[in-house]
Amino acid sequence: MAARRTPNRARLLVRGTLATTVALAATGGALPSLLTGAHAGTTAPATLTIDAPDRYLPRHYNLESAGTDGGHLNRAELDGGDAFTPYRWSPGTGDPVTVGKDPADTSAERVGGHASDTVAVYTAADRSVELKDMKAGTSARFTLPEGHTYHGTVGDTVVTATWTSGGGLDTLHLLRTRDGQLTDTPVTGENGVRPASTRLLGAGDGQLAVFVSGDSTGQIGLVDLATGRIGGVLKGSWGSGSTQVVISGTYAGWFDPAYGDQKVHLLRRDALGGTETTVGVASTYEQRSFVALAGDWVVSLRQTESYRNSDAPKDRGEPLLATPVGGARPGRCCRTPGPAAPTGSPRRPTAGSWPWAAGPPATGPCAR
After folding, report:
1. CA dist 194 to 64, 164, 186, 210, 240, Å?
2. By CB neighbour count within 10 A (0-12 exposed, 13-18 middle, 19+ buried), where does 214 fall?
3. Residue 149 near residue 161, CB atoms below 8 Å
4. Which terminus of the chain, N or C, has less C-beta within 10 A?
5. What phi, psi does 24 have (nearest 5°)?
6. What is the pLDDT of residues 149-172, one digit of tens each?
């Protein structure tokens, strides 16, 4: 996370005291009577001290994965610095529960999940994975097969990789526990199509997106999580460190703003060879957008501007937007109490179990 610049504390004290004085006076609070009493009495005036906040900005809140009924995996920024809480599971109701051990020692374990109530804790020292169902309160633990390296978890499926004798990627594997037994499903393709990277680009509705090689039409393939088969390639797709993939029941799409392309490219999952539909999403180098699919809507969230100017109003954040597939202007979403409407991969902005309501449009993924 970029270093945060704290505004001058002396200025903050002045602003904080002035703002509080005005607020108390305007609302008929305790300050006017305090001053009146001090003036009338013979003792020295009372002193009112207001501590200045150490920042203008709200705390960072990293949403890692969202499950059902509002439960989600997260880390939150602590007071007084740039440190974060350990990974926590926050249920829809009740207090957060710590998942994992020491957040400062990231080499000791990896905690993660994807659009599920299941959270994985991978411990590097003994190469073990514990799958914790945070809703049911159950867990299963196993050791990775020899030669496998851990690369993520989608639901109750652990994704690993094996390697050639020359150090290149052999293939990806999908590991699961069934009736107390560990199953291993290799990821395979047809006509020379194979996994080209260990990076997991996105997942949803029973499919996992990965970079592939061997297909001249595109670089992103869709893996069936049940069979391990690469069932299709998103034509026209390319890869960079900024590539994002979104998957819903109807569409699969990709978004990569690294080279100035400000569109989400969508294909129907039942016709990957058909004509793509694009949805515009504003994104710049300094304000990169993150996207998700919620039904027939593209939901997007743009990063705030950098902190280099300590410009607090701009650093408050950008609105969450929802744009219908097929046109129309995006509408703003705002957070309100109430049940969640959209579901999906929650890695960055996405909708996973958060309660949203919409300004125009009045229907869609943000409507209650």
Report:
1. 28, 14, 11, 10, 18
2. middle
3. yes
4. N
5. -65, -40
6. 999 999 999 999 999 999 999 999
CA distance 275 to 183: 38
Could you tell me if 242 and 260 are in contact, meaning their C-beta atoms sit under 8 angstroms apart? no
Spatial separation of the C-alpha atoms in residues 253 and 53, rounded to whole Å? 43
pLDDT 10s digits, 51-102? 655 555 667 778 888 888 889 999 888 876 678 888 999 998 889 999 977 6
Strand-pair partners of 30: none
Q: Determine the pLDDT at residue 6.
A: 43
| CA dihedral over 358, 360, 364, 368, signed as positive or negative | positive
pLDDT digits (tens, 9 = 90+) for 297-339: 899 988 766 544 555 555 555 778 888 898 767 777 754 333 3
- 183-223 per-position pLDDT tens digit: 999 999 999 999 999 999 999 999 999 999 999 999 999 99
Structure tokens at 59: 């705390």
Residue 225: how many other CB atoms lie within 10 Å:
22
**221 burial level (CB within 10 Å; 0-12, 13-18, 19+):** buried
By C-alpha distance, which of 173, 61, 59, 67 is closest to 112?
67
The candidate with the shortest Cα–Cα distance to 66, out of 95, 96, 91, is 91
Burial label for 8, CB within 10 Å (0-12, 13-18, 19+), is exposed
Residue type, 5: R
Q: Tokens standing for 67?
A: 């499950």
Task: Write the CA distances from 364 to 142, 289, 325, 332, integer angstroms.
Answer: 41, 20, 11, 11
